[in-house]
Structure formats: structure tokens, C-alpha cells
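Predict the 3D structure for this chain.
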Amino acid sequence: MRQLYEASTPRGGSHPSLVMKLVDRLRALPLPVGTIPVAVGLGLAGLMQYGFLVVAARALGTTHFAPLSVFWALLFVCGPGFFLPLEQETGRAIAARRVRGEGGRPVFMRAALLGGILAVVLIVATLVAASPIDQHVFKGDPALLAGLIGGFAAYLCEFLARGALAGNARFGAYGVLLGGEGALRVLFAAVLAVIGVKTAGPYGISLIVASFVAIALATIGRRGLLRPGPPAPWGEITHALGFLLIASVFTQLLLSVGAVAVQLLATPAEQTAAGRFQLSRIVAYVPIFLFQAVQSALLPKLATLASGGRHREFQALLTRLLLLMSGLGAIAIVGFTLLGPTVTRILFGHGFELSNLDFALLSASCIGFIFTQIFGYVLISLAGYRRVALGWTSGAVAFFVVTAIGSSLFLRVELGLLCGAIASSLVMAALLLPLLRERGAIETDLLISDLGGPPG
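Done. Predicted structure below.
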């Protein structure tokens, strides 16, 4: 590429072009293997989420969209919330075996058994509570209840597949799974809208069907994913699984439960409230979607610095990230406060948008949750799994307490989310400080030792 550049550059030019500077910078980025295809898949999946909601909201209208918005929220609380740790531990264990030249099938089977038990528990619990869920949450749409049950099976299969793909470094197929699922959801929703479907149930079912089709597209024909290997003890797959599960469930709950809370607290005269809240929250939480691009590379970078004992670089990276997020967060809050209602109206149609105050509170909680995620990744890189779980649990408790004592429908939920974000980030920051001091003291002792001991 450089020879081509030199051949095409006019004689006498003494400065490299902006294109070559960009190429050189991209080459120098310390990104983990697979970051680009995974980031592309995540980006496409995120965009397709908005695409699905735009199509469904415009096809159903404010009244019929409300139960679908609650189904959407519950699906993301229960799906990624319960099964994401399964992917993390499966991928980690299979990757470790691959480095040792061992097959990952025994690990996968252990994970599948654990995940299957969890899925059965969730399905049984849903069936036991089927009547109140159908009546109070989904407003008498049994298709959504069936979709929720099918969603447990879909997410079990999806996160197991993602763990196997990530552990075997099949990041191209991983990106296909993420992006394909989102694209298929929009396609199915568009078909339903074109043929005139005006009830929420088929749109909810289409989400689950899209997941199964995407899993098949990403995994069928991929050889070598589950090679035989030595038996896997339970400890190989349950490393920190309990704390990861607690953190994951409460993370997804805080990020997605708002519409469910609005639906449960709404009066009969407020039937459209949950749908309006969900779409406005989706717009206000765009920064979290954009932060996914940072997430894919942040944890490996932090883990590398921590395991290498490079504490000064570790703290410098954290400081730069927090300062950057403070500036961008302030801009985001002002921007969404002023423009959020207009953007929501343009995307989803008139009648879905909330007020400027609602967007101010929602966008502030969004930025708070980004800070919580940053502190969480820092703690995970320092093996502080228990502290991450405690932080997210504190946020969940704050959300429920504040929401319970409020009176105004939207305001009580928005303040609950904001207080949950503040509580979780503050607790994690407080739990992080002793670890940072401890690592700093260790690095100082090592430096003194290398220099021959303290001066006399």
C-alpha cells in the first residue's frame, strides 16, 4: 500500500496524506483480534433495534404498541440478563482450552446443562405466573406470553453459540449472528406491517424466530467448534459465574425495566404510557449504544495493563476515559433535553414523545449507567467480581425504593433510574478505590525492590 501511495504522490510533496496517516493509526491501534467484525455486528444489531421499533410503532400505533414495548423490555431483561454470563464463561473456558490444544466440547456440554436448567426454571416460573403476566403485563395477548417462553430457549441457544464462536475465535461468524439477528427482525417486522398486522403478538414472535434463524446461519457448517477434549470439572465453567449472573441480571434490569414499571403502575386511562416511555427511553439511551464500540476493546486493554502490573498506565487510561465521558455526557444531556422530543416524533410518529424534562432525566440516567459500566469493567479487570455484583445490586435497590415512593407515573420511574445509576456508580467507585491503592502500593514496592531497596 505504501508503494502505491508513493507512486501516486506528486513529486515534491513532503507530507503524507491524511489517508495514509489514518491507515498508519489504524494499524497501530492495540485492538484485540476480532474487534472489527464484532464491532460491525454490534453496530448493525443496534441500528436494527431502532429499525424494528420504528416499523412496529408506526404499524401498531400508540395503544397496540404498548404491550409490545413491555415484551421487548422483559425479553432483554431475562435474555441477556440471565444468559450473557453463560457466553462469557463458555467463551473464556473454550479459549483457554484452545491455547492448551484441548477440545472444548466437554466445557460446552457443562455450560449447556447449566443453561438448560436455568431456562427450565424461568419457563416454569413464567407458566406458574402466566395468568397475571398475560393480564397485567401483556394486556391479554397470549402470543406475547408464548413469545417470552420461546425467548428463553432462543437466548439459551444464542449465548451458548456466541460462547462457542468467541472461544474458537470465529469472530466473523459471531458478527454474522449479531448483525443477522437484527436485520432479520426488521425484515420480519416489515413483512408484518406490509400485510397489515395490527396486533402486537406476531411482532413479538418475529423477534424469536429471527434469533433462531440467525443462530442457524452463524453456526451451520462451521466445523471444529466443539472438538472432543478432556473432561471438564464444574469449576472450569463456574468461575465467578454467580457474581457475573447477579451483575448481568441487575444490569439488564436497570437498563430495560422502565417500560415494565410504567406498565404495572399505569392506570386504565394510561394504556399508551408504556409504549411512549419505551420509545423515548430508546432515543435518550443512544449514548449507551454508541458506547458499545468502546466496550469491545476496553476490557481486554484494562486486563492487559492490570495483569502486566502497569498501574500508572492503568490509572491514566481510566482518568482519560472518565474525563472524556464527563464532557461528552454533559453535551449528550443538553442535546437530548432540547432535541429528544423532536427526534422521537420524527422517528416513531406523533404521540410517542415525552417532555423535555423527561428526556433530561432519562439522558442523565443513561450517562450515569455508562459511568457504572466503566467502573464495572475496571473492577472485572482487577478480578473484583463480587464488587461489581454489589454495585449493580445497590442500583437496583435504589431504583425500586425511589419508584415505589413516587406518585407521578413517568417522573417516579425516571427518578428511580437516575438514582439507580447514581447509586451503582458511587458504590462501584467506592469499592474500586481500595483496589487501586493496593495495586499502586504493590507497584511502588516492586519499583523500590528493583532499585535495590529503600534509601538508608
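The chain has a mean pLDDT of 84.
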